[in-house]
Design a protein that fits this description.
This protein is an alpha+beta fold and about 600 residues long. It contains 13 helices and 18 strands. Among the domains are: about 110 residues, Signal transduction histidine kinase, dimerisation/phosphotransfer (DHp) domain (Helix Hairpins, Orthogonal Bundle), CATH 1.10.287; about 150 residues, Histidine kinase-like ATPase, C-terminal domain (Heat Shock Protein 90, 2-Layer Sandwich), CATH 3.30.565.10. Helix content is about 50%, strand content about 20%. It has a five-stranded antiparallel beta sheet with strand order 2-1-11-10-9, sandwiched between helices. Helix 7 packs antiparallel against helix 8 and helix 8 runs parallel beside helix 13. The longest helix is centred in the middle third of the chain and has 71 residues. It is rod-shaped and about 190 Å long. The relative contact order is 0.07. About 5% of the residues have low confidence.
Length: about 600
């Protein structure tokens, strides 16, 4: 990873950002979580306690309704609730209880809070129902501190026909123990899933708070809600005591006294400190991994676009694939891809146009050179017959003898014929090189065309006592322009006649091999120097300059042959043999 690259910079920025955010969360948890959670919990209890007090006063609940609503309140808030007067007389200290009617008709309330903490499972297994007969042994609260009539704190309870729950009832009663039997009239039990094991804290708190101090008493008479931290002296458990005063319709003031444990908050916060320590170590590693992944994921398309831009700067518009993302980076990549394609097409067209321009310029220069050479050669070739014609014409004009006039006239006609052939060849060559000529191709048998040409040149062959031998083998029809191919055969045969030894044979072979046909014409005579084999196709080139006038050639015949065969895209060559020269043309393929 390049330290100066955008990936490294984004990685560092992402790590710093996540570490700051993560550190802020952890510090907030460690420094403020306990106070925040405590305030939230106490505020929620105060709000619900106020609502409970309003309903308690306005609806004038009976004792049964008060017990049920108090039990519901404690289950919802997981705390303890007692209703007491200003002088400490308990009107409701335990919502979870059993009411038992004794034989004399007196109702006794059996408090279950402490008893449930130790014998909850056995008591539920007994499945007490109203109407069941039970025997209860327990103790009433002493005269010091809080007193409550008809309230028993049981040490043992036995349902008729069931095993005793708690202390054995046969044991001798001691001190203020009370034992009696009766019928269950009401039962309010807690849900064991949410049962608080700290119900005994309520009684310790009541013992410590009452009688009320003068400051507390004055605040409560002014209907101020008291909220103070309280630590249970035996266990050191932190609690919050909330006292909410309410006025009864009779004018009396009742106090809703609740004890809410804060110990779980402290324990939770202490566990969180260690938890966040371990979480911080693993979180730091996770932040590094996620930051690296995120930085590479974000910068990968940017790096790809940068590489593409670098290639485009070097006029390389190939090997670019757009990024497939449905966002701004994907749109930018597709735009760059379109731009590179357009630039590549434009540059290629520009290069092709430039190459064509260069080729055209070179062709123009070659054409100019060819034209200059052509005109120079043409003027030279025309100069000789014109000079001869002029000389003999002047002789006739000066009045040569009658015996020489016929000779003079014959020479003038011969030179005029040569000039006519030269001009015709020049016109044919110009037409072939113009690029406007359209070939009229058709299928025909080449050997038949050769025979027709040989018949037309019968007199030339007879003058040199030459014989033409045509050898066809597996001949296939060829597809070409008949008129121009006849000119090719004529030029080949005439050239062979001019350079053949007198009395020799000219051999023409036509062979087929699949889609390809081979044509060759061979004569016996002088060979062509190897260094001049490629030059014989040039204009006005003659292999035997000293005999140019004697052979009567214009020097354009083979140039015309070359242009015709090139237009047909046929291959051809010339080669020396043991006794002479052979020309070969390959048709098709």
């Amino acid at each position: 990873m390049n330290k100066r690259g955008v990936t490294f910079k984004l990685f560092i920025m992402t790590v710093v950002f996540f570490l700051c955010f993560y550190g802020m969360v952890i510090l907030s948890q460690l420094l403020f979580f306990e106070n925040f959670y405590q305030k939230q919990k106490i505020g929620r209890v105060e709000s619900r306690l106020q609502s409970f007090g309003q309903s308690y006063v306005q609806e004038a609940w009976g004792s049964g309704r008060v017990s049920r609503e108090a039990a519901r309140f404690m289950l919802q808030n997981k705390n303890q609730l007692a209703i007491v007067t200003l002088d400490g007389k308990v009107k409701l200290d335990d919502a979870f209880h059993i009411n038992v009617r004794k034989a004399d008709g007196k109702i006794v309330k059996i408090s279950l809070s402490l008893f449930m903490s130790e014998y909850g499972d056995e008591l539920r297994a007994a499945r007490l129902q109203p109407g069941d007969t039970v025997t209860v042994e327990g103790e009433g609260l002493g005269t010091e501190g809080i007193s409550s009539a008809n309230l028993i704190y049981p040490t043992g309870i036995q349902k008729l026909g069931f095993k005793s729950i708690g202390s054995t009832l046969e044991e001798a009663s001691t001190g203020g123990s009370v034992r009696f039997s009766g019928t269950v009239t009401e039962i309010v039990l807690p849900d064991l899933k949410t049962w608080s094991q700290r119900q005994g804290l309520l009684f310790s708190a009541l013992e410590e708070w009452f009688p009320l101090s003068q400051s507390h008493l004055e605040k409560l008479k002014n209907f101020e809600v008291l909220e103070e931290d309280w630590t249970e002296p035996w266990t050191g458990v932190r609690n919050a005591v909330i006292v909410h005063p309410v006025r009864q319709s009779t004018g009396e003031i009742d106090l809703l006294f609740t004890v809410t444990s804060l110990q779980e908050i402290s324990e939770t916060n202490e566990a969180l400190r260690w938890f966040y320590l371990y979480l911080g170590i693993s979180g730091f590693a996770l932040i590094l991994i996620l930051s690296l992944f995120y930085s590479r994921m974000v910068t990968r398309p940017l790096i790809a676009l940068n590489n593409t831009a670098k290639r485009m700067a070097k006029l390389d518009f190939t090997a670019h694939t757009p990024i497939r993302q449905n966002d701004e980076l994907g749109s930018l990549s597709y735009s760059m891809y379109t731009l590179s394609q357009n630039l590549d097409t434009a540059l290629r067209e520009l290069q092709e146009a430039n190459q064509q321009l260069v080729e055209d310029m070179e062709q123009k220069q070659r054409m100019e050179a060819v034209q200059q050479d052509f005109f120079a050669n043409a003027s030279h070739e025309l100069k000789t017959p014109l000079s001869i014609i002029k000389g003999f014409a002047e002789g006739l004009q000066d009045g040569v003898s009658a015996g020489k006039q016929d000779h003079y006239m014959k020479v003038i006609v011969e030179e005029a014929d040569k000039m006519e052939r030269l001009v015709k060849d020049m016109l044919d060559l110009a037409k072939l090189e113009s690029g406007t000529l359209k070939l009229r191709k058709m299928t025909f048998i080449l050997s038949e065309l050769v025979e027709e040409v040989v018949d037309k040149l019968f007199h030339l062959l007879k003058e040199k006592k030459l014989e033409v031998v045509i050898i066809p083998a597996n001949e296939m029809p060829i597809h070409a322009d008949v008129g121009w191919m006849e000119q090719v055969i004529i030029n080949f045969v005439v050239n062979a006649i001019r350079h053949a030894e007198e009395g020799s044979s000219i051999t023409i072979r036509i062979e087929g091999a699949g889609d390809i046909s081979f044509f060759s014409i061979e004569n016996k005579g002088e060979t062509i120097p190897d260094d001049q084999l490629e030059q014989i196709w040039d204009r006005f080139y003659r292999a035997e300059l000293s005999r140019s006038r004697q052979t009567g050639g214009t020097g354009l015949g083979l140039s015309i042959v070359k242009r015709i065969l090139d237009l047909h895209e046929f291959h051809f060559k010339v080669e020396n043999t043991k006794d002479g020269v052979r020309f070969v043309v390959i048709f098709g393929g």
